[in-house]
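User: Can you write out an input/output pair for a complex, sequences first and structure second?

Assistant: Here is one pair. Inputs:
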Amino acid sequence: MAEPVLSIRDLRKTFGALKATDGVSLDLRPGEIHALIGPNGAGKSTLIHQIAGSLRPDSGSIRFLGQDVGELGVAARARMGLGRSFQISSLALEFSALRNVMLAVQSRQASSFRFLKGVMRDRSLTEPAMAALERTGLAPRAHVPAAELSHGERRQLEIAIALALGPKTFLLDEPMAGMGPEGSRALTAFLDGLRQEAPILLVEHDMDAVFALADRISVLVYGRIIASGTVDEIRSHPDVRRAYLGETA
Amino acid sequence: MRDGVGMTRETAIGLFLVAVLLAFPLVASAMGEPFYITLATRMAVLALAAVGLNVALGLGGLVSFGHAAFFGIGGYVAGILASHAFNQEPIFSTPFAFMGSDRMPVVWLFAMLVSALVALPIGAISLRTSGVYFIMITLAFAQMIYYFAMSWPAYGGEDGLSILSRNTFPGLNTANPLSLFAVCYGLLLVALLVFAVLRDSRFGAALLASRQNATRLAAVGIAPFPVRLAAFVISAAITGLAGALYADLNRFVSPSMLSWQMSGELIVLVILGGTGRLFGPVAGAMLFVMIEFVLGGITERWQFFLGLILLGVVLFARGGLVGVLAGKVRHG
């Protein structure tokens, strides 16, 4: 089996008496979509924060591309190739969609301390950014400030920014949140192809999307992974049915 | 409104302001009213100081309440270098004797360098905090430097330091008010150009993004801290340069240049003109000096009316004077 791109071992994080992450281990292998599901308050966001580097775990290890990234900050992990989208869109709202993506291109070229050349005249920035917008279907809105984009468009922009980083792994936190059925279907089809570029750790509430996309699913409940397996294994897992999917599944 | 599509309304308004600032002393000179030349020079120097603050405050959203420190340091550098050059006393004699200087370009270089060197540790510590704490810690550092200047007898202490003969600029007679104006105005134009280039560069993009959403900036792999620190240091150097000119204009430097009132005044200039706007500091400084002069001639309590105007701007015209005239800012 191929070496995992992202490997988490025995991660623990407590807030007072609350065990938000309670001995989580999981792998992300090349070419796969690994979905992380779980009810509200299960600790999905806490886990994502620890992987991204915005929250320090109490113990356990996170290895990315074979390297322990525990001591690295958010920016350093992003530069290594961790492309993240946020659960609630987090954008530079005064900037146009294009300039939001250009920031990612600029970072990828490791060049934020250049003081002379104007960015809008710099085709090494604008062209890759435009290409990322085209892939997510946002190109016609490239020059609209992020503040004026619709909710769904902001979700697309989040994905375009992650794409422009040329990441080794996508960390997508509820990319479908708040999108209409039309948008969800389009994004599902898009993510389906994306796994060829880089594996995706997908946190998602939209079960249709998860079952359509995931190679493997891990179920997080009260900070612990109670089950991990293929779509069929998870669908039929009795604990999962009880804890999460309920009677209707 | 976007780059490359002719001249924007904002650029047109900015160029108009800059032209008025140039015309004002020329007309005054033709009418034999040297006082108004000094008034215009004061506008240019304060505008330059505010351009400096505008890098940190306007582009980076860093509300420094301690920029008087750099303004005052620039002033003291000018005063100290000039006094040593005048008295022919070395400032230090090992490893070589440094006699100070009465040449403006040398003075400017030192003013910017010293301001930047002081800003580096102040920024490195202050930028670990944000919001109100950042405001307070920059204020605290400035106050430390203020009290140090008050209690340092070698250069006048609280009485300040006179510059007996104004520093010189090659080819110009700086004792002539119009020549001094030309020097200050020229530097203001250069600073505006630097600001515009910086804002539109990759560094500027990162700095603007750090103000809008630092979380997003870090998530694409650009750590906000070094970007902010560089901006803080650049900002201090420009304000320090303005301080050196201010000392030469008044032929006097005192701890009041380092006071928190001065820091507040610089913030007022930026807000009045339009925070983060290229020509905001020019508009702010022209308006401020006009208010000070016109209302100051009518009543001693002119600052009360300045307060009212500032209140109006903050409540009803967030973009300042430039914002009112040119509309909202758009970034490509």
